[in-house]
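**Polypeptide and fold**
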Amino acid sequence: MATTTPVTSPHVEAAKELLVKIRALRTEIPRFVLDDPAETQFLGRIAAVTEEFIEAACVALQRSARLETAAGANATALRDAYNYALAYEAVVTELHALTRCMTHTIRVQRAAARDVYVLAKRIANKKGGAELIPHVADMRKKLNSKRRKEPNKPADVAVKA
């Protein structure tokens, strides 16, 4: 069986440049905090509060200097934090949409090989298509071996900072 020489793809450099831009967005997001799995799980349980609850907490802060000192925040800062969360939730929604669409785009590109396989099977079964029979068998073997393995995870394109 012939081995193929890796071909340098023009897409690698474009993907690296895009990753740099995406990672640079972090510096443009005010108050950006890297996630910590333990903290994320904890915050998921306690951060689901209503606007009414936040306002009640603000009123309590305004009424008690002792609470304000203990919390290390005042009502204005708490309201600002809530307004921040409301404003940036739209960004999260948009980023999720981008992620879904990019995943779909990659699947569409990978599906092109499957289209070749389907066409090769059709042509191999017709008169004059015998030269494709070994290629169809090879693709079938590789397709079936992939199904037995764990699903591929997307490769991370390394970016040097």
User: Anything to note?
Assistant: Helices lie at 10-28, 37-46, 51-63, 65-71, 75-124, 133-148. The chain has a mean pLDDT of 88. Residues 75-124 form the longest helix (50 residues).
